[in-house]
Amino acid sequence: MYFILRLLAVALFAIVMLIFGCGYCLLSPRNPRNVYTVGRWFGKMSSIFGIKLELRQSEASKTAGTCVYIANHQSNWDLITVSNAVRPGAVTVGKKSLAYIPIFGTLYWLTGNILIDRNNRSKAMGTIGQVIDKIKERDVSVWLFPEGTRSRGRGLLPFKTGAFHAAIGAGVPIVPIVCSSTSHLKASRGNNGHIIVEVMDPISIEGYNKDNVRELSKHCHEVMSAKLAELDAEVAERNKKS
């Protein structure tokens, strides 16, 4: 029953987003402010799926300014969990294939996000160069998933270096965003319990360059892996009590 009701709710949401979401973005197509607005709309879907979502943001991250956001990438649940953490003035960087997803793909393009071809390394690196230019010229932050693919319950996967090259090239800090594990979520379950999304303190890129970019990647991975374990333990305890 929950699955059917939620399926209907998602269908209705999709229709509303197609009509009003695309219409809203067409007023100012490809404007970065659209990403924050649409991200929050998707985030509101979490309550429909019985998720008690808590968003946390460190004080230091609130004044980070232009930066590169990096977040763990777990599954399609990210659309209604991690999307709550999208900050004003940030655009995301995703696979080119996202543009072909019905409704979502159109919105993803109209909101001003950056699409890259991950199957072509030289083309992808060229896009990272464009990302650096956008950060410098438009004073816009970017959001990246450094794992490069969905982890699907396998924990935090190894990071690729694109996000860290972008931060170093643009001379901006990195702000990690961690969402507690979502592998237990089910559309057919009435109460899906707690999920915590946390925007962490900025990580400085001072002292790093293209020669030691993997050290920066490793450091960020360690910080986010420890936070993921911490959040998972807290969520498990909360779910036991409730």
How would you sum up this structure, described in words?
It is a single chain. It is globular, with a radius of gyration of 18 Å. The chain is of the alpha/beta class and 242 residues long. The protein has helices at 2-26, 33-43, 59-62, 104-110, 121-138, 162-170, 213-241, and strands at residues 51-57, 68-71, 90-95, 114-116, 141-144, 174-179, 193-199.
Which helices and strands, and how do they pair?
Elements: H1 2-26, H2 33-43, E1 51-57, H3 59-62, E2 68-71, E3 90-95, H4 104-110, E4 114-116, H5 121-138, E5 141-144, H6 162-170, E6 174-179, E7 193-199, H7 213-241
Parallel strand pairs: 1-7, 2-5, 2-6, 3-4, 3-5
Antiparallel strand pairs: 6-7
Helix pairs in contact: 1-4, 5-6
| N-to-C span | 22 Å
How many H/I helical runs?
7
Oligomer: single chain
Percent helix: 40-55%
The counted number of beta strands is 7
Q: What are the secondary-structure elements, in order, as H or E? A: HHEHEEHEHEHEEH
Give the low-pLDDT segments.
none
**Shape, principal axes of CA atoms:** globular
Mean pLDDT: 91
Strand order of the largest sheet: 1-7-6-2-5-3-4
Structural class: alpha/beta
Kindly provide the radius of gyration, computed on alpha-carbon positions and rounded to a whole number of angstroms.
18 Å
Strand content: 15-25%
Please outline the major beta sheet. 7 strands, mixed
